[in-house]
Amino acid sequence: MKTLSPIKRRKILESVAEIRGMVVDMRLVFIGPPGVGKGTYAKMISTKYGIPHLSTGDIFREEISKGSELGLKVKYYVEKGLLVPDDIVIGIVRKVLKSPECERGFILDGFPRTIKQAEELDKITTLDAALLFEAPLQTIIERVSGRLVCPNCGAIYNISWKPPKKPGVCDVCGSVLVKRKDDDPEVIRARYETYRQTFSPVIEYYRSKGMLIEVYSAREAAEVVTEVEKILRERKIIK
Fold first, then answer.
1. Which terminus, N or C, of the chain has the lesser number of Cβ atoms within 10 Å?
2. What is the pLDDT of residues 7-44, one digit of tens each?
3. Is 113 marked active-site?
4. What is the CATH number of the domain that holds 18?
5. Which residue out of 27, 73, 143, 147 is catalytically annotated?
6. Annotated catalytic, 143?
7. 183 lies in a domain?
8. Active site includes 189?
9. Each residue's pLDDT tens digit, 45-84
């Protein structure tokens, strides 16, 4: 399958949003523990309002596939199982945010992870808000431990609230669904604790600047997104 260029992706998003009369200009950061659903919320808002959803993991993979200078540096650390240094991460994010794809805004998912990254982001662009999605750990465990993923098309199911029509088989492409190793309850608990330790300073950074919006996320994705839209309208970010 041919990969769309950033400009083409932006134009498609904007075209869909224009048809709906919902093109906006907003720059958001999404924060939340693994499994809270922030990627889902970001994709829903991205599609509706015509701004790109930027996951640092996706950005890394794209740069590596391009074989760019930054991509090769990222590949070195990823292949050794090491954290990518702040300077390289910031360089890649700066490059993406300065591209035509992001000229009308963006949703950053997974960045910033450190105070240094947050401070550097402030030098690159002006954010409208940082949204913190929260849910009880047990709710996250129930969501994630029941997750099934299609290794072929990427469709995601849940044995409790979104099961496939045929058990163990993807509705979209018919492939056998798999369970990720990191969806085990003990792994989820460990990742949650790592998230809390990593992101607490960043959360307080945005709270101190009056930019943090806390969103209760132990409910259906559509309800969470509706709440987000309501808050962004109240803050005049969506007009």
1. N
2. 455 455 555 445 444 557 899 999 999 989 998 899 99
3. yes
4. 3.40.50.300
5. 147
6. no
7. no
8. no
9. 999 999 999 998 888 888 888 888 888 998 898 888 788 8
